[in-house]
Amino acid sequence: MTQAPLVMTCGEPAGIGPELAARARAALGPAVPFVWLGDPRHLPPGTDWIAVDTPQAAANVPEGRLPVLTHRFAARVTPGQPDPANAIGVIEVIARAVGLVQSGAASAIVTAPLHKKVLKDGAGFAFPGHTEYLAHLAGDVPVVMMLASPLLRVVPATIHIPLADVPAALTPALLEQVIRLTHAGLIRDFGLSTPRIAVAGLNPHAGEGGAMGHEDASVIAPVIARLHAEGIELTGPLPADTMFHPRARAQYDAAICCFHDQALIPIKTLDFDGGVNVTLGLPFIRTSPDHGTAFDIAGKGLALPDSLVAACRLAWDMAAARRG
């Protein structure tokens, strides 16, 4: 059975998402078919697009043309100037994409970036972001964020909270959940039969025997020992400052980090344009470029499609892994 095309959501229409869609189509060609879901009025002038009725029809669209599943929005857009009137449309597109992938009409979702304040102002959007809304649509399932590239996969155990709040948030229950979701995702979505996971320490030198903090020994180490005894390939807690050089990265398939910057600094340093945001734990595949709406350069032809292209390729490969 042929793998269904991807569905790419439009994201915030005043951002760089629409202009990158056609460029991603040109870069990927027929190897990774996708349909763009949004209002064609928001595509850059001169975009060669064609309306389709289903994602499957994308496979028959001539190379160089962008297949579009039309979703009408309330207003046109000016690049760089978001309009809250379009917030409902952005939210509807995400929900519609989930419906397509749940029905099997699409094999995975690739989401262009959205702007949370615009959604809140225009539609009372109650979720912190894309990931939480997708988890809600999937039945309020637990999820984790992975940033992935060919050079490194990282999972932050805590994400958008102040650094001062991390020690209290990093509970044994949370760490166990993150490890289990990462382990399952590496098997199901990346085709690794026995994934190797490294866990970073919270404190410098992983606490250095308690001299620099107790959390590594009292919180992190017991969880690792218990799950390792179950058969999960785990190492840690490891000093974060020695985890990301080439020899260290060769020893694991993914690194779980204690806080946002501990995870994102190394991957953005190693592969700033090629990193992909992956949501693990969903019953469907979702990837996203690792950048925002970039209102300051929207419509100027300066945005690079590399991360969006990488997100499409990874989503396609993950869908193939799930199919076996």
Automatic annotation (TrEMBL):
Binds 1 divalent metal cation per subunit. Can use ions such as Zn(2+), Mg(2+) or Co(2+). Its cofactor is Zn(2+); Mg(2+); Co(2+). The gene is pdxA. NCBIfam families: pdxA, PRK05312.1. It catalyses: 4-(phosphooxy)-L-threonine + NAD(+) = 3-amino-2-oxopropyl phosphate + CO2 + NADH. Pfam families: PdxA. GO terms for molecular function: 4-hydroxythreonine-4-phosphate dehydrogenase activity. Gene3D superfamilies: Isopropylmalate Dehydrogenase (3.40.718.10). The keyword Zinc applies. Its main location: cytoplasm. Its EC number is 1.1.1.262. InterPro entries: PdxA (IPR037510), PdxA_fam (IPR005255). It comes from Pseudotabrizicola sediminis. Belongs to the PdxA family. A divalent metal cation binds at H160, H205, H260. Catalyzes the NAD(P)-dependent oxidation of 4-(phosphooxy)-L-threonine (HTP) into 2-amino-3-oxo-4-(phosphooxy)butyric acid which spontaneously decarboxylates to form 3-amino-2-oxopropyl phosphate (AHAP). Keywords: Cobalt, Cytoplasm, Magnesium, Metal-binding, NAD, NADP, Oxidoreductase, Pyridoxine biosynthesis, Zinc. This is 4-hydroxythreonine-4-phosphate dehydrogenase. HAMAP family: PdxA. The keyword Membrane does not apply. It comes from the Bacteria. PANTHER family: 4-HYDROXYTHREONINE-4-PHOSPHATE DEHYDROGENASE, D-THREONATE 4-PHOSPHATE DEHYDROGENASE. It is found in: Cytoplasm. Pathway: Cofactor biosynthesis; pyridoxine 5'-phosphate biosynthesis; pyridoxine 5'-phosphate from D-erythrose 4-phosphate: step 4/5.
